[in-house]
Amino acid sequence: MIETSLPAFQRTRRLRRTAGIRNYVRENELHPRDFVYPLFVTDGANRKTAISSMPGQFQQSVDQLPGEIEELLGLGVRAVLLFGVPDAKDDTGSGAWDPAGAVQLATRLIKQRYPEMLVITDVCACEYTSHGHCGILVDGYVDNDQTIPLLARTALSHAEAGADIVAPSDMMDGRVAAIRQGLDWAGFLETPIMSYAAKYASSYYGPFREAAGSTPAFGDRRSHQMDPANGQEAMREIALDLEEGADLLIVKPALVYLDILRRAYEAFDVPITAYNVSGEFAMVKAAAEKGWIDEKRVTLETLLSMKRAGASRIITYHAKEAAAWLREDGSV
Q1: Domain boundaries, position 101
Q2: Strand ranges (DSSP E) for 71-153?
Q3: pTM over 0.85
Q4: Total domains in the fold of the chain
Q5: What's the sign of the alpha-carbon dihedral 120, 121, 123, 127?
Q6: What distance lies between CA 324 and its chain's CA centroid?
Q7: What CATH number has the domain bearing residue 288?
Q8: Does residue 199 carry a catalytic annotation?
Q9: Residue 119 domain-assigned (yes or no)
């Protein structure tokens, strides 16, 4: 018999040998409560229009929401993010703070009928302006200081409708402070602000612009959304928003900015939400439709990467499917 002597080494595979052992030592897990589901709410009634670039997603009127909310609650998803898609638009985006606007009506309906569902409202002007930009234009440029009061007014209208959390996504300087001041003066001291603190001028937003009807009539948003080349700048933006009164943070997009998410997680002791954006969603759907990937496994792996990087919650269009898959697998 030939005797061999192997050098000493660690048998780390012992902890990967069976499903039971793997489950026991798993460091991060997904749960339906981790997910926030975006909803695109329109004016009118009996409306449910499919979004061609985002399979399974719809623009829908407020009367269609009960079915959506009941399905989400049944799956264990406990938070939604509302975007308004109005019929009428103008240069100032005045529909954004209309108390009879789709987001305001949707918020009231959800909180009255399904108080256990957390309602987060997106605060921006791009869906409401005739030019598709995020605020007031002066000589073709979004004027920061003229836009801020309109954002504060919009956030207040959402709080008055019953929003649990308001989420400014515009990337104007100083808007968190103005929103916090406006909410506090109106008596909404307990309404948290979840700031899109690190929001990049990304190419991954294309399908969303169809969904929200927010494609700019000209130009782009690089004058206010962040340069994808910059990482340290994101840390500065986050620090400033926290100083101004933000309670929670969003990093957007998520998948190709996991380094930013991780840096923010390590630097700031506040809950951070990753936004798994429309382009990330659409790519998975398109590849799955071609049969090139296993949609379930790729989706859950993608979402898990965001959790592992430091996200406490994930805004994702996959929320329903992911929650159902987790239940099927016995993970929840």
Answers
A1: 29-328
A2: 79-85, 118-123, 137-138, 141-142
A3: yes
A4: 1
A5: positive
A6: 20
A7: 3.20.20.70
A8: yes
A9: yes
Nearest to 122 by CA among 154, 78, 166: 166
CA distance 149 to 181: 11
Mean pLDDT split into 10-residue runs, the chain, 332 residues: 73 91 91 97 95 93 97 98 91 90 97 98 88 80 91 97 96 94 98 96 84 61 82 97 97 96 97 96 96 97 97 98 93 69
Distance in angstroms (rounded) separating the CA atoms of residues 317 and 55:
10
Lookup result for tokens 């009231």:
108
161 contact partners, CB below 8 Å, separation of at least 6: 99, 103, 104, 105, 107, 108, 111
Rounded distance, CA 65 to CA 82, Å?
A: 11
Task: Tell me which residue of 302, 238, 295 sits closest to 276, measured CA to CA.
Answer: 302
Q: Which two tokens stand for residue 29?
A: 């897990």
CA distance 29 to 234: 27
Locate 327 and state its tokens.
């239940």
Using CB atoms within 10 A of its CB, is residue 104 exposed (0-12), middle (13-18) or buried (19+)? buried
**Residue 226 within any structural domain of the chain:** yes
Report the alpha-carbon distance of residue 198 to residue 217 in Å, rounded: 24
Q: Is 24 part of a structural domain of the chain? A: no
3-state secondary structure of 201: coil
Residues near 38 by beta carbon (within 8 Å), at least 6 away in sequence? 80, 81, 82, 83, 315, 317
Which residue in the list 199, 285, 307, 320 is annotated as catalytic? 199
Tell me whether residue 87 is in a domain: yes
Active-site option among 252, 285, 307, 320: 252
How far CA 309 is from CA of 133, 150, 272, in Å, comes to 31, 34, 10
> Among 102, 159, 90, which residue's Cα sits nearest to residue 128?
90
